[in-house]
Please model this.
Amino acid sequence: MDAFAKAKKNIKTISIVLFAISLTQKCFCTTTTCSDSSMTFLLGWAGLLSGGAGITWLANPCLFGAWITLKKNLKTSMFLSMFAFLIALGFLLFDNIKDNEGGVSHRIISYKPGYWLWVLSTFCMLAGTFFLMAKSNSMKMSLSKPEKRDYLH
Model:
């Protein structure tokens, strides 16, 4: 395995591990309860229908897409990780969330480690893909430079 492929694997692994750890933590608290990240992840798709903060669950498919496409299409992975990161951060813009099956909104009062680890997972993927893209571009540039010739000799 070359260094570039190893870097891809390491970046993806770090992001996945952070994501997995985030699922073991509380992610946010409202005025009535603190939500488990794993339950929010498993049932969050239902929040898409209610709008508001529920749409930030879409960061998950973007992140999964970034992981999947990393090996074959770095540019696509970079864009998907950028969307995942921005959507995950977008959760901070919402004051209320529907956090139970009753459909009643409650005020978000704090963000817990599960949320921050999730955001960190998306950021690691984003920073990693930007690093890989820069490295890829510099490798292409060094290969395409014309050979210097000394015309005086």
Summary: The mean pLDDT is 91. Strands lie at 26-30, 34-36, 96-98, 105-111. The radius of gyration is 20 Å.
